[in-house]
Amino acid sequence: MLAECKLYIVTGHPLCSLAEDMLMDWVERAGLLVELVDITEQPLPLAQWSSRVPVLERVDTGAQLPWPFDLEDIEHFLK
Questions:
Q1: Percent of the chain with pLDDT over 90
Q2: Rounded to two decimals, what is the model's pTM?
Q3: Contact 4, 33 (CB under 8 A)
Q4: I need a labelling partner for 67 at 20 to 30 A (CA). Which of 30, 34, 50, 78 fits?
Q5: Average per-residue pLDDT for the chain
Q6: Distances (CA, A) of 3 to 14, 22, 44, 46, 70
Q7: Which Gene3D superfamilies does its entry note (predicted)?
Q8: CA distance to 27, 53, 59, 68, per residue, from 64 (Å)
């Protein structure tokens, strides 16, 4: 079973949209659970991440995969 993840984003940001699209394959194909967290709607310190987003975070370990990442990076991150 795949780890549950959070994807920290800024809604409407092109790189964040690209990251969401990449993760949709994992959601549809493998059943990955991903919670989207818009950092602009969060109190500090999440709002301080604005220069790092998108960031994929595993809920089970707290490990983070900051942008830039590709499909291969995601695959390794989820194992």
A1: 71
A2: 0.89
A3: yes
A4: 30
A5: 90
A6: 25, 16, 26, 21, 18
A7: Glutaredoxin
A8: 18, 11, 9, 12
Domain residue limits, the chain: 5-78
For residue 14, whether the previous peptide bond is cis, meaning omega lies within 30 degrees of 0, is: no
Q: How confident is the model at residue 8 (pLDDT cuts 50, 70, 90)?
A: very high
3-state secondary structure the chain: CCCCEEEEECCCCHHHHHHHHHHHHHHHHHCCCEEEEEHHHCCCCHHHHHHCCCEEEECCCCCEEECCCCHHHHHHHHC
The percent of residues in the chain predicted with pLDDT above 70, rounded, is 92
CA distance 73 to 40: 26
CATH number of 5-78: 3.40.30.10
User: Which of 28, 30, 42, 37 is CA-nearest to residue 56?
Assistant: 37
